[in-house]
Design brief:
This protein is an alpha/beta fold. The chain is 36% helix and 8% strand. The chain starts with 21 loop residues before the first strand and ends in a 59-residue tail after the last helix.
């Protein structure tokens, strides 16, 4: 009888992620590599619908492209990857700003403070992404979901303006505040066929709007009080398109408002009122420009990534409005037309941006506040009393 020999069992091979998926260690290495592009990371993340707020997109790992071990340790490392991604977005912009300044950038230095229209992590090229791609040096302090109250409390934008000596401040806020912070149904009445869209908006909305404008006023005054001549550029939002989303469409359906066009008109009235109030406020400051973005994204659903955020291409159109306003304020920086294929230079002549000697503070620039006055019971007014 032939003797059979028992072969030793081969050691089990380490499990490999399925094709097209990477493990968490590889993802961490990508996040740690400064050469990693934001576009290359998109496929590894998606929006966490449960944790996200209306202007607060939260990321989660995409299980179709990332292997997440079904263990508590795997979950913890997954959360770490998400935190690293949010940190990576901000640090990437800081690194780009520092590198651009180190390369001898002489264009208008910019500080930005804003919500998810200025910082939509990884999944979209937002306004600031597009402006950075145009060659600007932008110290970005933006954070998705940031509220006016938090911006005022932290004062980070003031520190950024002081530290960089920026001549331009880009500001985006108020959408989350005005649209109810995820509780839109609280400022809209139940559907009544006898009422028009504007009549469905409760007085509570005006309270939210007044609070938002008061927050804007405080921030604009704080920037105005800084030394130097800082141009502030803010904006109202375009009119979003409610769908079956939980921030606009579903809250309105809870009120019995189910017609999509009627929903769009109600939200449109809110955005109109916000734009009008913000324009009135900005008109009282000599060095503030308020951009009316209504119609820039437009009414076509394909221009909207979701109920509240434009697509990459539409964000680019919004960024073009900011670009044009910055160029108008710094015409010499863009006077020379570059040769074909050459990136436009943002250099400006030295006399445009004088630098104070070391140890000497820049002189404060007197800022003239524009305003209106109403006179009752007077027959004559001396214009000279008010100055020019």
């Amino acid at each position: 009888m032939a003797k059979t020999t028992k072969r030793a069992a081969k050691p089990a091979k380490a499990e490999r992620p399925p094709a097209g998926r990477i493990d968490l260690e590889t993802l961490h290495r990508k996040l740690a590599d400064p050469r990693t592009s934001e576009a290359s990371l998109r496929k590894y993340f998606k929006i966490d619908e449960t944790r996200s707020g209306p202007f607060t997109p939260q990321l989660e790992l995409n299980p179709a492209t990332v292997k997440i071990p079904p263990t508590p340790d795997g979950a913890a490392r997954g959360d770490m990857a998400i935190a690293s991604a949010n940190w990576w977005c901000r640090m990437r912009r800081t690194s780009l700003f520092n590198a651009r300044m180190a390369e001898g950038y002489k264009g208008p230095i910019i500080v930005s403070e804003g919500d998810s229209w200025f910082q939509y992590p990884i999944l979209l090229n937002d306004v600031i992404d597009h402006l950075i791609a145009k060659g600007y040096a932008i110290r970005s302090l933006d954070a998705a979901g940031d509220t006016l109250e938090n911006m005022i409390r932290s004062g980070e934008y003031l520190d950024g303006l002081r530290q960089t000596g920026a001549s331009v401040f880009l500001f985006s806020a108020g959408g989350n505040d005005v649209l109810g912070g995820g509780n839109l149904a609280s400022v809209v009445r139940d559907f009544d066929p006898a009422l028009n869209p504007a009549q469905h908006i409760l007085p509570a909305f005006q309270t939210l709007l007044d609070q938002a404008i008061a927050g804007y006023d405080q921030i604009l005054r704080n920037v105005e009080a800084l030394p130097g001549d800082i141009l502030t550029i803010c904006h109202g939002y375009d009119k979003p398109l409610p769908n079956k989303g939980k921030w606009l469409g579903l809250p309105l359906e809870k009120r019995g408002i189910k017609d999509r066009e009627f929903q769009r008109q109600i939200v449109g009235v809110m955005i109109d009122r916000f734009n009008a109030a913000l324009a009135r406020l900005a008109g009282g400051f000599a060095n503030v420009r308020c951009l009316d973005l209504r119609g820039v994204v437009g009414p076509k659903p394909k221009r909207w990534h979701d109920e509240l955020h434009p697509t990459d291409r539409a964000y680019g159109a919004v960024a073009d409005r900011f670009d044009a306003t910055i160029r108008a304020a710094h015409p010499r920086a863009f006077a020379a037309k570059p040769a074909p294929g050459v990136r436009p230079s943002l250099a400006v002549k030295g006399e445009e941006r004088p630098v104070a000697p070391r140890g000497v503070k820049k002189p404060a620039v007197a800022k003239k506040r524009r305003g209106l006055s109403l006179h009752v019971g007077l027959n004559e007014i001396d214009p000279g009393h008010y100055g020019s």
